[in-house]
């Protein structure tokens, strides 16, 4: 399990580095940026406290996104980024606080929508 997690981290760093390479096509850069931002985000789209679904992104969505992104990037770019990623692995994983802030904002909007609209469907009206 630890080896799988380490390989996943390395692949995320490879994508992070490949995103910056001008040889990567625009559509691949866009997809790669989304995968890296989501993977490095301190906040998950599906919070881990939700039973079963909470870990779905960690086990299925992120690895699938990495796999698709790696297939979009030219092989020579990946080979060069693998070398750089090994060096970065020694320093630690970068955090994407912009993406994390975006996910926090999404959850706040969803929760506010639920809180403000939930009672109305049950025949309850907020006092004015």
TrEMBL record:
Keywords: Membrane, Transmembrane, Transmembrane helix. It is found in: Endomembrane system. The keyword Aminoacyl-tRNA synthetase does not apply. The keyword Protease does not apply. InterPro entries: DUF1232. The chain crosses the membrane at residues 26-43, 49-70, 97-120. Signal peptide: none annotated. This is DUF1232 domain-containing protein. The lineage of its organism: Bacteria, Bacillati, Bacillota, Bacilli, Bacillales.
